[in-house]
Amino acid sequence: MPNISSVGEFLLLAFADTHELQLLHFALFLGIYLAALLGNGLILSAVACHHHLHTPMYFFLLNLALLDLGCISTTLPKAMANALWDTRAISYQGCAAQVFLYVFLIASEFYLLTIMSYDRYVAICKPLHYGSLLGSRACAQMAAAAWGSGFLNAVLHTANTFSLPLCHGNAVDQFFCEIPQILKLSCSETCLREVVLLEVSLCLTFACFIFISFSYVQIFRAVLRMPSEQGRHKAFSTCLPHLAVVSLMVSTAMFAYLKPPSISSPSHDLVVAFLYSVVPPLVNPLIYSMRNKDLKYGVRKLFLYMPLKH
């Protein structure tokens, strides 16, 4: 059995070998980060400031924008700092905090996307019951359940992962600390609990995905039966962005975790992790605002009223 050593810091995977390329990556990440902050910040401001957007759908969208901001702020700033200062180090406590926050936010986001599919299902398939099923109190409770479930998930996974002894060094083959990469450093016979916990989480995620899929089967059946073309267009314009966000998140994460080991390599895993951890927070605001006239109107009003308030 390899020697069990205490670790004071971890070494993250660098995006490039030379400092010049690292600086180029820093500039790219900075642009992506600022674009994500701007897009999600505009959604938060538009929903918070305009009364006509104070509906369940936009309440959940506001929560999604908060989670997206948290997700990208958990991973990208440290990668930017490492690229700027040409280092790979992250402290043990910083790594644990990164794992906790990322699991908390990404789990909460997926549970919230499941709730959002229920919101669209009730709005289109049971419109007469919408007010009673999705009142302000019910919406607040569902959002709190999503955040609370994500928090519980993060506590269990982080406590379990960082209680494991490490036998295989401190080099993490990823640009941020994530559980599968840390498990590779642990003693194989001691990480069984965390593997089982991950499998339970994957089963729960799959159950949420089945619920979302079932909701959308019912939604599309109801939409196709609508006599009005305008009604169908409005229904699709509120449903398709949510479906696109779910598809992007699930497809990239499934490819990352379920791909065969034969096509796995550090550089390949780096690109895939970038796709599922950085791209969704960046493109979600674009996806939601592209076909949503109310949201675009709210964002335009923000820019129109800014000079007047100044």
From TrEMBL:
Keyword line: Cell membrane, G-protein coupled receptor, Membrane, Olfaction, Receptor, Sensory transduction, Transducer, Transmembrane, Transmembrane helix
Subcellular location: Cell membrane
Listed GO CC annotations: plasma membrane
Every G-protein coupled receptors family 1 profile domain range: 39-288
Membrane topology: Multi-pass membrane protein
Gene3D superfamilies, A to Z: Rhodopsin 7-helix transmembrane proteins
Main localization, broad class: membrane
Domain of life: Eukaryota
A GO MF label: G protein-coupled receptor activity
TM ranges: 26-47, 59-79, 99-118, 138-156, 195-217, 238-258, 270-288
SUPFAM superfamilies referenced in this protein's UniProt entry, alphabetically: Family A G protein-coupled receptor-like (SSF81321)
Stated role: Odorant receptor.
Entry-linked PANTHER family: OLFACTORY RECEPTOR
Family: Belongs to the G-protein coupled receptor 1 family.
UniProt name for this protein: Olfactory receptor
Lineage of source species: Eukaryota, Metazoa, Chordata, Craniata, Vertebrata
